Amino acid sequence: MKALIIDDERLARNELRRLLENFPKIEVIGEAANADEALNLIDELSPDLLFLDIQMPGKNGFQLLEAIEGKVPEVIFTTAYDEYALKAFEFNALDYLMKPVDMQRLAEAIQRVEEEQIHEVERKEGIKLLGEADQVFVKDGEKCWFVKLGKVRLFESMGNYVRLHFDDQKPMILKSLNSLEERLDPKIYFRANRKHIINLAWIDKIEPWFSGGLLVTLKTTEKGTATEKIEISRRQAIKFKDLMSL
């Protein structure tokens, strides 16, 4: 399992790396001293696990997790402050280790990581990816739809909900964008940024955008619904170009 250590204290990073040498299944592939460095490394190295400090200059550990585009790695918080424990588990952290990190507590955390990895493999093996020909049942309030996914041009995150855009309808379902992304065929549906997944078949126009990103214009629907313009972030633009190029 590939791990990234994120902590603004160099001594803390060195000590944690030393302790992790006792766990051969954990490969430390990089270190970051702040959230900006971490975001670049996460995008470049695709770690499976983050050992994440909370209090850091600039973005804190929670803000870092909120800024990650796409699938968030597993997280073990390492911090000198116990008052953030409840909030940490709101972010689905596997564990919360107090500094200085105790070897026994670290071993317990690593055990949770390994168990979670097994569960993740079993869960993915049981999941059927949904493509454009699949039909799904959608209920929002008193209204219901049975819609082919190929008609859904855009999925938009709205907090704990996702808004589906098809025809002139925009119902919401109680699901996170990350969990939905795991169910969708990546050859058809692309994570454009933190808030949007687009149906590649609905792209009408692509143009360069700020900071190395792209701006995608989606096709107008048969019912004449106004076209949506979605920004593909700089990080995701690199993946998009790789995916769509010869």
TrEMBL record:
Protein name: DNA-binding response regulator
Boundaries of every HTH LytTR-type domain copy: 138-246
CDD domains: REC_LytTR_AlgR-like
SMART domains from the UniProt entry: LytTR (SM00850), REC (SM00448)
Residue ranges constituting the Response regulatory domain according to the UniProt record: 2-114
UniProt modified residues of type 4-aspartylphosphate: D53
PROSITE patterns in the cross-refs: HTH_LYTTR, RESPONSE_REGULATORY
Organism per entry: Emticicia aquatilis
Keywords, ordered alphabetically: DNA-binding, Phosphoprotein
Single GO molecular function: DNA binding
Pfam family, one: LytTR
InterPro entries according to UniProt: CheY-like_superfamily, LytR-like, LytTR_DNA-bd_dom, Sig_transdc_resp-reg_receiver
